[in-house]
Design brief:
Layout (H helix, E strand, L loop, with lengths): L3 H23 L11 H45 L27 E3 L15 H8 L16 H4 L2 E6 L2 E6 H17 L1 H5 L1 E5 L21 E6 L10 E3 H12 L2 E3 L10 E4 L1 H9 L4
Antiparallel strand pairs: 1-6, 2-3, 4-5, 5-8, 7-8
């Protein structure tokens, strides 16, 4: 919003420039094809005065433009110096300088997820067929209930440990990536970080209601999170305010958010296809 005045001023500058260029076309400084009488002389005088006025206006507009550029530079410097940054220098904080957090009492407030189908733009949700193609089935005899993982390639990478504020059982590279996400959340908003809870991670089973499709929780690359142990309602297109804040940090790390799924599942965060391919290329999986 703070850029709106500058944008309006820029438009004004363009309009002024068009006026400066266009007026001489409609009021030529030379006389017409004939004459040169008193009326023509007065018209030429008026036009010369108008040119002088326009020159003064153009100079004033240029000065205003310089002032706007100077203010923009000062604002950018203030924002950069005031905000904590991640490893890439990107500002993260929503915490105020005095340590107060104006939204901390509203993290569990249920809000509408705006434009949710485009939330994971640039990232691909891994389908069950993608996961099976990359790793094979997590076990041979799946059911609707959680069972141990028997896939030797994946089972060798499973770790059960505390990651930030939650206990999870996931693949080692997923745990490392999740730790990075939590580190950034803690830096930006320690109140939110301390209120994050989990509803589970690894669960080797079919997707609820299916006898063919494997749940992505079966591969150790997904986790369900909530605020203050309050579960979000599945499929209502709404979610907890705290989860909407967390989602940006997950997306930045290459995780997709279940709020964008056909049936909204905003507690669900899972590693994207792009991140999985990156780990495979790096020999992490």
């Amino acid at each position: 919003m703070r850029l709106l005045p500058a944008i309006l001023l820029s438009v004004s500058v363009l309009i002024a420039a068009l006026i400066v260029v266009s007026i001489p076309l409609f009021f030529p400084s030379g006389g017409g094809s004939g004459g040169g009488g008193a009326v023509d002389n007065q018209a030429r005088i008026d036009i010369e005065q108008l040119h002088g006025d326009l020159d003064n206006i153009a100079e004033a507009v240029n000065q205003l433009r310089d002032q706007v550029d100077s203010l923009e530079e000062r604002v950018n410097k203030i924002e950069v110096s005031a905000a904590p940054v991640d490893d890439s220098g990107n500002a993260l904080t929503i915490y105020t300088p005095d340590g107060n957090n104006p939204v901390s009492n509203n993290y569990t407030q249920v809000v509408l997820v705006a434009d949710r189908r485009s939330l994971n733009k640039g990232l691909t949700v891994p389908t069950p067929s993608f996961m099976v193609d990359k790793f094979g089935p997590p076990r041979d005899d799946l059911s609707a209930e959680c069972q141990p993982m028997t896939n030797p390639r994946l089972a060798a990478l499973l770790e059960d440990q505390q990651v930030g504020p939650v206990q999870v059982k996931m693949l080692k590279p997923a745990i490392e990536s999740l730790q990075t996400v939590f580190d950034h959340i803690k830096l930006a908003d320690p109140d939110l970080y301390n209120r994050i809870d989990t509803d589970g991670s690894l669960c080797v089973r079919f997707i609820r209601g299916s006898t063919t499709n494997v749940s992505n929780h079966s591969f150790g690359t997904a986790v369900d999170l909530n605020i203050d142990s309050k579960l979000d309602t599945l499929g209502d297109g709404r979610t907890q305010l705290g989860l909407t804040i967390m989602a940006d940090f997950f997306n930045a790390e290459g995780w997709v958010w279940g709020a964008a799924y056909g049936r909204e599942d905003s507690m669900h965060f899972e590693v994207s296809e792009e991140k999985i391919n990156e780990w495979i290329a790096a020999g992490k999986i």
